[in-house]
Amino acid sequence: MDYITHILIIIGIYVILAKSLNLIMGFSGLISVAHSAFYGIGAYVSALMTLKYESSFFVTLLCVIVINSLLGIILIIPSFKVEKQYFLFITFAFQVIVFNTLNNWIELTGGAMGISGIPPLVLINWKILSRYEYLLLIGVFVFIICLVCGLIVKSPFNRVLKAIREDEVLALTLGKNIIIYKMTIFAIGSSIAGIAGILYAHYISFIDPGSFTVMESIFIISIVIIGGAGSYWGPVLGAILLVLFPEILRFIGFPSSIAANLRQILYGVLLVTFIMWKPQGLIGSYKFFLRNAK
Amino acid sequence: MSQIFVNTLISASFFIVIGLALSLIYRAVKFFDMSLAGIFVAGPYCMLFFYNSLCIPLFFALIFSCLLSSIIYYVIYFAIYKRFEHNAHSPLSLLLASFGIYIILQNVISIIFGDRIMTIRNIHIQEGILLGGAMLTPIQLIAILYSIIFVFIVLIIMHKTKYGLCLRTIGENFPLAQSLGVSVKKTIVITYLTVGIFVSLLGIIYAYDVDIVPTMGMNIIMMGIIVMIIGGNGIMKIIIAGIILSLAINLGAWYIGSEWKEVIAFAILLFYLLMQPRASHKAVN
Amino acid sequence: MNKKILLIVLLALVFIISTFIFLDRNSTKDHTLTIGCISIFSGEIATYGKETKQGIALALDEINNSNILQGKELAVQYEDSQFDAKMGVQAINKLILVDKVPIILGAFSSRVTLAIAPIAEKYETVLMSASATADSIKNSGDYIFRIVPPNKVQGEVAAFFARENLKAKKAAVYYVNDEYGQGLSKEFTNIFTMNGGKVLFSEGFSLGQKDFRTTLQKIKKLEVDILYFPGQAIEIGLILKQSKEIGLNTIFVGADGSYSPDLIKIASDAASGAYFTLMSMGFGVSDDMIKQFNDSFKKKYNEEPTVYAAYAYDAMKIIGQVISKNNFDAKDIKKGLYDLEEYIGVTGLTKFDQHGEVDKNYYVYEIKDNKFILSNKQF
């Protein structure tokens, strides 16, 4: 039972990550390889703040949102001047820089040794100690974030984003200030990734830079694409499938040396298959990436 | 000081070859093909198989390895990219797909050969050659010579052969190329096969220098991409970009510490992209 | 709509199947006592896991054949942490929550041990390492034990060896950038300078780094008598190789983390003459047991045992003894370990102090003829 709870918590965290990336990718058509960097920043900021200053949950939440939003806005700025593939490289560069900083700035982050003994979260007076309480917390956050995404989807804000995604030039002619829209959505998406980071850090009680690499970003991208970019339940479905499958492999008893590689091969195959043959994902309806997307 | 100069030349050699290779592929198929990183790694692992396991003499092992890697690269193109080129799929999706293919290649290599570091050489480790105050191993000298030769080959092919003309035309104006009867398919095939050979050979040289792990391809390729983006279109520009990047990295490594090499490289890329004027940036004119 | 229903059905199936597999794995046989083991079984330095398993398996044979557990059989559930703290965390979570073991032998490396110790403490499970030497493990908790001496001792031995035996006056320190390397470099620097030496250079390198030439060139310019380089086998092997290539000629002194055949594979003849400190065997205390151990090991595996295999063997034997005298639960085992009166094994005398630490020494080994052998120069 305990282990199932653990799996559910991990799924919950990835749902949050996938939904937030879906906001960025699915609704404004930008591919970001930097999502795990924002995830990592959230985790490290929260871990360090609670360990050094014993700050409360809401303070760290606020800090993470502010930091990630600012960084997100800075990254978006060049996206108007360059094509989408170059934006991908910008996010790649950001991701690598963040990872290396976490890994090399040992005085601050402990480097590759990571940070251990992260204390449990405290919400006002409620100390979240047991797994079940944590599951409850994650559930609440998933619910809130789904609500927020849902609101964004139904809003006029979203219609503008869709217009931007399909045809930037047209959207420009309609007089909408694209820059503000893109910035907002990227800031929101990145902040939510940071929140997932906070939840992760306090759950596992140990973080190291190895959890926040380019491969992790690509994993989250795979979840979004396979589930269906731009759809509401797509990221949820994708997260459940991509998290469960290696766990099943593990129980069937594959030697762990091969299991890790097989898992990555699976992700690679799924990624390529879906991009090339089923770009709308399992239950999406937007054929992501295609030039004349319909 | 002269050591920094020599180190710069060495890493610049690798960057320039990869950068040029990537730009050739880009001209042909109009997207950044990350699966080339897998071919870079495949070369040395094929060598491990042919030279270390099967004990085939060095010269033939080299030929087999490069041919095999090149064929693998072409098969990737044929099985996947070919179906979707130049029409429905955006370069972004192909780029992402090529990431996926790299992941598959790298992990297949990991399964077959294991993740542990592997050595191809079985020669004695010797002191390097002293060249004007700096130390240089024979293999590093080979790397520098290789890059010079490669640059010359590319220059000659691009400007003096029919194939080169085809490639340049496709790169600059695809519809025009088609209407002029340029055999696009053949050009692309030749490009993939030759680039595959040269990049896998580069990988083998690299492996002789620093030994191999399955994950080393991505790093080098990213340096090549940085060089390509900063360098832009011309071959000369790529060479200069490679030298500048290499110089910045090695100076930084000397004064700040070698663990920050990647950060320096990507910070340069970031800075460059952030400084672009307000216009669509293209790697090809 | 149809698509969505299909997918929901698929998901449900996946859930049901996984639950069945999970439940099935969980059924335990009554007469088997299972403990856990976390080590490095894959990835770059998998020889360590292999050696650990060899030592443990040999000890297991002896324990189960001697019937000290009165009819019950002792078994080990192995989990792979690679050289990655996060995987170690996953491994210990599974061992504690799914396999429900009361004691875990591991982890192999300091960094993984430090990451999983808080979890062992939290879930009140005993964690005993046969090889993790970072100093801070001492204070990791009540349930944390180890049968190896800490890096404080190792750094001291290296520094004294450098000063007294090698007569070195100027040293450079190039350490792996984690608690293991940092702790050792700090201790070495302290003792070396306290005894009249000078450390001219001190810098860290990252795990996974492949090119050290820039820093080695800086060190070459300083013309030091020795280079102290605590780190893991792959990086240290590359450092030895690249030092020779750039003409850095000095005496090399390293630490136990480099003790692996992989080092010799990478550095080949560049490794000749390098010194390394290793945790002490029980020479002079339990020579009979050591000979017996060597013979049984050679008989079973057809190769010589390494120091790590010996330590894993001893750890397993100690666990076997404690389990035979106590109830099979974590609290009793913990008490049993603290109460252990001087266990004599192949690694010498083991007795745990109130921190779960032991009082042992380090010996100096050197590389000759492509092998690690006990040096005839000892501090």
Quick structural gist:
Helix content of chain A is 73%, strand content 3%. Chain A is built from 12 helices and 4 strands; from the N terminus they run H-H-H-H-H-E-E-E-H-H-H-H-E-H-H-H.
What's the β-strand tally of chain A? 4
Q: Which residue ranges of chain A are poorly predicted, with pLDDT under 50 across at least 5 consecutive positions?
A: none
Rg of Cα set of chain A: 19 Å
Name the overall outline of chain B: globular
Overall structural class of chain B, as computed from helix and strand content, comes to: mainly alpha
Radius of gyration of chain B: 19 Å
Structural category of chain A is mainly alpha
- Topology order of chain B in helix (H) and strand (E) letters: HHHHEEHHHHHHH
Description:
The complex is a heterotrimer of chains A (294), B (285) and C (379). Chain A is mainly alpha-helical and 294 residues long. Chain A has one domain. Chain A contains twelve helices and four strands, in the order H-H-H-H-H-E-E-E-H-H-H-H-E-H-H-H. Chain A has helices spanning 2-28, 35-53, 57-76, 84-104, 106-109, 131-154, 156-166, 168-173, 178-204, 214-227, 234-252, 256-277; strands at 115-116, 122-123, 126-127, 206-207. In chain A, the strands form two sheets. In chain A, strands 1-4 form a two-stranded antiparallel sheet. Chain A has a two-stranded antiparallel ribbon with strand order 2-3. In chain A, helix 2 (35-53) packs antiparallel against helix 3 and helix 10 (214-227) crosses helix 11 (234-252). Chain A is globular and about 55 Å long. Chain A starts with a helix and ends in a 17-residue tail after the last helix. Chain B has a single domain, classed as ABC transporter involved in vitamin B12 uptake, BtuC. Chain B has eleven helices and two strands; from the N terminus they run H-H-H-H-E-E-H-H-H-H-H-H-H. Chain B has helices at 2-29, 36-53, 58-84, 91-113, 138-160, 162-172, 174-179, 184-210, 217-231, 235-255, 261-274, and strands at residues 129-131, 134-136. Chain B has a two-stranded antiparallel ribbon with strand order 1-2. In chain B, strand 1 and strand 2 (134-136) form a beta hairpin. Chain B is globular and about 60 Å long. Chain C has a seven-stranded mixed beta sheet with strand order 7-6-8-9-10-13-14, covered by helices on one side. The model of chain C has no long low-confidence stretch (mean pLDDT 88). Chain C is built from twelve helices and 14 strands. In chain C, 46% of the residues lie in helices and 18% in strands. Chain C is an alpha/beta fold and 379 residues long. In chain C, helix 5 (151-165) crosses helix 6. The radius of gyration of chain C is 22 Å and the shape is globular. The A-C interface holds A 2-4, 6, 103-104, 106, 111-114, 116-117, 204-206, 208, 210-211, 237, 240-241, 244, 247-248, 251-252, 255-257, 260, 282-283 and C 3-4, 7, 11, 14-15, 17-19, 21-22, 25, 41-43, 46, 79-80, 84-86, 89, 93-94, 97-98, 111, 114-119, 122, 177-179, 182, 204, 206-207.
